[in-house]
């Protein structure tokens, strides 16, 4: 069943990514001009990546992967979406930043890469990555398996509390995950469009269904510890980077979106964990 669910998500992501890319036509030019899509939280936790091997899991269209490569890393991005990986390879060429990209389900790729002897100094994932993973402990074990001794896992992710809310800050979904995940008939949204100010994007419907998997903070921390990783950093953040989940959130010049007064809830979390040397 998880493989079937992931394949449903692959189709939904292919459709959604094609839509998202219509809002991102200036990416290559921005990269050539030295701009980066990375936020301070990621840059700080990644640290100095010059000359280091970094794998970006669920890299989407590769924008952040290329931002890491521009910092001097030997970067590899892995994503389940065919459309996203094709776009990432084009962006790497057009933006003039070298990186590699592979199309794969990360739950298949991670143990296969470990068996091949591939090792990385940093495993990185961010922003809407974990909710597509049907088996979070397996994902964490896989991340630990491809880390070199002393290597670090860095995750910056939307807070699971956000997934419980609907517009109007109404609590409408369970915090703890349901067995088998939650199927959404409307598929992955055009969140890129409505965050960019395209009001019509909120009414766009993806014809390909998707399945999300809710993971509590306890699930995340327990999975990291269960994989033998040593947690060095954990924090909760009161803003959303690059995403406006609710219309009444206010954006700022740093591409951060803040809840209205009285709704100051945790919107993201960040985690860094090290594999013992």
From TrEMBL:
GO biological process terms on file: methylation
Keywords, alphabetical: Methyltransferase, Transferase
Ranges of residues in domain Methyltransferase: 54-151
SUPFAM superfamilies: S-adenosyl-L-methionine-dependent methyltransferases
InterPro entries: Methyltransf_25, SAM-dependent_MTases_sf
Pfam families, A to Z: Methyltransf_25
Keyword Nucleotide-binding in record: no
Keyword Methyltransferase (UniProt): yes
GO function terms (MF aspect): methyltransferase activity
Protein's UniProt name: Methyltransferase type 12
Species of origin: Conexibacter woesei (strain DSM 14684 / CCUG 47730 / CIP 108061 / JCM 11494 / NBRC 100937 / ID131577)
